[in-house]
């Protein structure tokens, strides 16, 4: 059987001495987390979960040669490397706050073929404060983000900061009130497999200045994924007020 994209990318990590089994990944997940939280990061934003089928993201984004792909919160960078392997876009960029995860991405990149290394770039930066002006197709793994952080990420994607943005795929629905500012419209819900939902999790496709044709484009997805997507979309339209947990996380 041919190797999946993730299996191919994991070879770069193994060659770099970075373990890709659950024990190795949970060790990486813990490294640096308490320091980052003490420095003011929102703990739930640092949760380390991974997409197991990155090809679902690339298909949804219609990732092609000539595109500039960004993973906002790229963890160990496996989605960025997989994007480079899958479609050979012009550039694939991973932005990650946590230094140990960023270092793992750099180590794996160094073991990738020369043509993959040339188009991949990893930056250890805060998405909310970094340059994103050439980002065209964007992925955001926000499954564990609290509502106010999702709103802040959507704010970071406003047209002034991301003039080239065409499409954004997220793992959780963005608060409705934040979409206007980013000039984004939901156009499709699709399915993927992820470490937090191996039986299926929703992916949300937003387009800049989309034509509002969500209903017409809805694809057949399994009942469990459709249920989760509609639960999130309904929460996304509810009041913008902060929950107690959100308020606590802002007290830093
Ligand atoms: C759930 S992981 C996703 C990893 C990878 N993108 C994937 O889907 O497999 C989310 C990552 O976002 C990072 N992150 C959270 N807030 C961030 C910020 N403001 N700037 C950069 N990275 C951030 C976290 O440290 C974490 O590694």
Automatic annotation (TrEMBL):
Keywords: Chromatin regulator. The keyword Manganese does not apply. The keyword Nucleotide-binding does not apply. GO terms for molecular function: histone H3K79 trimethyltransferase activity. Transmembrane segments: none annotated. One of its GO terms (biological process) is regulation of cell cycle. It catalyses: L-lysyl(79)-[histone H3] + 3 S-adenosyl-L-methionine = N(6),N(6),N(6)-trimethyl-L-lysyl(79)-[histone H3] + 3 S-adenosyl-L-homocysteine + 3 H(+). It comes from the Eukaryota. Residues 42-105 form the DOT1 domain. Its EC number is 2.1.1.360. It is an enzyme of class 2 (transferase). This is Histone-lysine N-methyltransferase, H3 lysine-79 specific. It comes from Symbiodinium necroappetens. The lineage of its organism: Eukaryota, Sar, Alveolata, Dinophyceae, Suessiales.
């Amino acid at each position: 059987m041919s190797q999946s994209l993730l299996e191919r990318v994991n070879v770069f990590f193994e060659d770099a001495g970075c373990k890709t089994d659950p024990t190795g990944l949970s060790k990486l997940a813990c490294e640096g987390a308490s320091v980052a939280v003490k420095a003011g990061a929102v703990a739930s934003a640092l949760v380390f979960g991974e997409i197991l089928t990155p090809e679902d993201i690339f298909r949804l984004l219609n990732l092609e040669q000539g595109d500039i792909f960004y993973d906002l919160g790229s963890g160990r960078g496996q989605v960025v490397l997989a994007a480079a392997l899958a479609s050979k876009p012009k550039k694939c960029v991973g932005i990650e706050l946590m230094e140990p995860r960023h270092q793992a991405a750099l180590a794996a990149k160094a073991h990738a073929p020369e043509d993959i290394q040339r188009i991949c770039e990893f930056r250890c930066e805060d998405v909310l404060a970094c340059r994103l002006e050439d980002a065209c197709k964007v992925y955001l793994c926000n499954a564990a983000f609290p509502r106010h952080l999702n709103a802040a990420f959507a704010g970071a994607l406003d047209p002034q900061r991301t003039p080239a943005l065409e499409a954004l795929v997220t793992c959780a629905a963005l608060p409705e009130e934040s979409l206007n500012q980013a000039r984004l419209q939901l156009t499709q819900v699709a399915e993927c497999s992820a470490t937090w939902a191996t039986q299926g999790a929703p992916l949300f496709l937003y387009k800049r200045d989309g034509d509002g044709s969500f209903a017409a484009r809805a694809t057949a997805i399994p009942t469990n994924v459709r249920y989760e997507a509609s639960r999130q979309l309904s929460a996304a339209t509810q009041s913008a007020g902060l929950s107690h947990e959100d308020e606590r996380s802002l007290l830093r």
